[in-house]
Design a protein that fits this description.
The protein is an all-alpha fold. 78% of the residues lie in helices and 0% in strands. The chain is built from eleven helices and no strands. Helix 5 runs parallel beside helix 7. The N and C termini lie far apart (51 Å).
């Protein structure tokens, strides 16, 4: 598909097409399916507003990430009571700093599921997660869309003409899986009271622990 065919596609799908492609590119855990080339080419369509493109893409991406987040959020129920109690200090810590972590993961090109899944396991606030992720994705999209608008068509033609070696995608997926497996394992096995208590003693206060235990029972 050349760049003219891409423009024709967006004339038919418009903002909804941006949303769907962003959703599909974000829902597949670990496999980096880039939707940015589509985001870039759509920014050059004079029929589409750059800001609405960013909003549409962020909405699609966040919808996908919320599914992944909730899968780990409710998957926590299969953990033993002992493991969940061990994670309470981590839950307290993330309740304060999780928003920043989710925002940075959304704003940068790192494999964000490495951050989002642990946040779900720690029962981070879904509303705060959605807000942070949306703002991060929107800010990243705005940078891409407006940079494209200023750099123009030659830049896009050069970018879309390049081929991506699938070997890099496979290596990236395997690396992400290994790293996440280590993170999840440590999240479940580490004595967070000892580790966090040394640097963030406020996360071990009894009222905080009681508050989160009540949430666990809801």
């Amino acid at each position: 598909m050349d760049i003219n065919e891409v423009f024709s596609l967006f004339n038919n799908l418009g903002y909804f097409g941006v949303l769907i492609i962003s959703f599909l590119g974000s829902i597949i855990v670990f496999v980096p399916v880039p939707y940015f080339p589509i985001l870039i080419t759509s920014a050059l369509d004079k029929h589409l507003d750059p800001n609405v493109i960013s909003i549409s893409s962020a909405t699609g991406a966040v919808t996908a990430k919320m599914i992944i987040f909730y899968a780990s959020y409710y998957g926590r129920k299969v953990l033993s009571d002992r493991t969940r109690k061990r994670m309470l200090p981590l839950q307290n810590l993330l309740s304060k700093y999780g928003w920043l972590g989710a925002f940075i993961a959304a704003l940068t090109p790192i494999p964000d599921d490495l951050v989002y899944i642990p946040l779900g396991l720690a029962k981070y606030s879904p509303w705060k997660f959605a807000t942070a992720t949306f703002l991060g994705k929107f800010a990243l999209n705005e940078i891409i869309v407006w940079s494209t608008a200023y750099l123009g068509r030659p830049f896009v033609e050069d970018l879309t003409s390049r081929k991506i070696d699938p070997t890099y995608a496979i290596i990236g997926a395997i690396t992400s899986i290994v790293i996440l497996a280590v993170i999840v394992y440590l999240s479940l096995k580490i004595d967070w009271a000892k580790l966090i208590g040394r640097w963030f003693p406020w996360a071990l206060t009894q009222d905080k622990l009681d508050e989160n235990e009540k949430k666990e029972g809801m």
